[in-house]
Amino acid sequence: MILYEVFRLYPPVVMLTRTVYKDTKLGEVYLPAGVQVSLPTILLHHDIVIWGDDAKDFKPERFSQGVSRATERQVCIRLIWLGSPGVHQTELCNDGSKNSLAMILGQCFSFELSPSYAHAPFDVITLQPQMGLT
């Protein structure tokens, strides 16, 4: 549950882009072949319509009934391990695991941030801490 919530709040891949290979009609929207469609996963993972008023809060218990019941209306989470096997998953999962472990240990121990730490995640291809993760 904790890893699900960490990856929901800080998805390693913040945008998925796909190319339409043949003319497609999606509801009322016409998508001609060759158009690129982008899915902003970070926006979906923080949407209060999907996740509720506490969408921006860290609440791992929202996954206590499983991923499919975590949202108020629909399944809308893109976890990295559900993605393409070509994605370098080990490093991303290790970073998420470090964050999760720190949150768990933080309930029993006291931690202080380094005076030089600045929380500044940035998007290159994946969402990463701008100042590193140690």
Average residue pLDDT: 75
Overall shape = globular
Low-confidence parts, pLDDT < 50 over ≥5 residues?
80-88
Tally of individual helices: 4
Secondary structural class? alpha+beta
Kindly state the percentage of residues in helix.
25-40%
End-to-end distance: 23 Å
**How large is the radius of gyration?**
17 Å
Largest sheet: 2 strands, antiparallel
The run of helices and strands is HEEEEHHHEE
Query: Which strand order does the major sheet show?
Result: 1-4
The fraction of residues in strands falls at 5-15%
Please supply descriptive tags for the structure shown above.
134 residues, alpha+beta, two-stranded antiparallel sheet, 6 strands
Describe it.
The chain is an alpha+beta fold. 25% of the residues lie in helices and 15% in strands. It contains four helices and six strands; from the N terminus they run αββββαααββ. It has helices at 2-9, 41-45, 48-51, 89-105, and strands at 16-19, 24-26, 29-31, 36-39, 121-123, 127-129. It has a two-stranded antiparallel ribbon with strand order 1-4. β2 (24-26) and β3 (29-31) form a beta hairpin. α1 (2-9) packs across α4 (89-105). The protein is globular and about 55 Å long.
